[in-house]
Amino acid sequence: MPLGQPSSAVHVQNVPAGSHSSQPRTPTLVTLHPVALFSILDHYLRRMDKQERVIGTLLGVRNDSGEVEVRSSYAVVHKETAELVAVDMEYHRTMYELHHRVHLKEAIIGWYSTGSNLDTYSALIQNFYAQETAPHPAVHIALNTGVEEGQEPGVKAYVSSPVGVHPKPENCVFVPVPCEFRFHDAERSGLDLLTSDSASPLSDLETLAESLKAVSSMLDRVLGYVRSVLSGEVKGDPAVGRYLMDTFGADTGELEKGGFRDSLQDTLMVSYLAELVRSQAEVSSRLALVTAS
Length: 293
Fold this sequence. Notes:
Elements: E1 2-4, E2 29-32, H1 34-45, E3 55-62, E4 67-76, E5 78-80, E6 85-87, H2 89-102, E7 107-114, H3 120-133, E8 139-144, E9 154-162, E10 172-177, E11 179-181, H4 188-194, H5 204-231, H6 238-248, H7 252-257, H8 260-292
Parallel strand pairs: 2-4, 2-11, 7-8
Antiparallel strand pairs: 1-6, 3-4, 3-7, 5-6, 8-9, 9-10
């Protein structure tokens, strides 16, 4: 559905955006998680040849201190010409409903685009997402891939502010907001592998073998310490003994009560959603190509 032309008004239907904080507040900090960043990059790499930029929806949570946490994202099919910009709202609505079934706490918090161009069309899209996130301000993340001449790659976050006594949807100012990259401890190993300087990345089996070697080395150290304590060579530390007893004395039921099972389920669901987004984007791209031809 077309969002409009630079001089026309915008009329769109609101999409349920889940639960928000009770009091609207301008974001003071935007944090971006690796899953959302990699999804944006994957969308950009799979774009059509003539497509200058891609856009999509940002999902996450807000807190009372004004921080906005971007946890995930999905691609949205859109088309830009010299006359108008159009966004596939039905696709956007369907993708959010699917995501919301799995992540009830995550709501629509804004949108992303690649490139550094904040033009009139960006203002129209911002106005559309402002209706999705109302009464909270919509967050826009601009990912510069470094393809544009004279531009360095990077990520910037913005919120919009209306201009004029009777502002129009296409008239707004994008105000920068501090943006940080954040990841959990469980994601560190994957990020280290992606950012390593190795010319030939390890395969899954090689990575598993390296992890098993590290675990075996740590077990050998623990076994050597225990034998030294039993033989009287080293005085045992009660704190270390209690830690080892808690670690090796836990049964399968206790492990399942912890966060391991939940973390595994979250990881598998993120992987499933990523594959679903890629498949949907590929199908939509092919349909758009067939329609254009």
